[in-house]
Amino acid sequence: MPNNIADQEGVEGNSEGNALVDKLLIYKELVSIIIFFAGGVVWIYAAFATQDTVDAIQQDNQKSLATIECLIGAAIAGRGLDQTIEQLKHRQMMLTLQRAELLESRESGGVTVVTQVHELELELAEAKRDMGLAIDERAKQDTIMKNKECSQ
Asked: What pLDDT, on the 0 to 100 scale, is given for residue 26?
């Protein structure tokens, strides 16, 4: 028996709480099942991607693929330009040698040698112009590769 009135009130309040707990104990399995399935639904939503997430991933992949294709194209174009530059250097060297040979034989040649020298000088100027264009284009490809940016 409780010694004072305050203890008696605590016991009465406790008995009301016990009655509520007793009523809820009847439904404990039902509450457990509901909580279990609600947790499963939350886990499924968090664990698996939604269509928006899948769409965002596909869009990012498409952007990445486009960038990679552009960079590969720039690398291939750069290699082609390197070969073109080497060919143009070789052409310039050959034209310069031919011009030097013609200038040495100029004393014995006459008008035809002067015409041939002039034609070689025109070809040499064209080769130099082509070389400048190829070098400029190669610089653009290098910039694309270094900055990893493609304008499409």
From this structure: 84
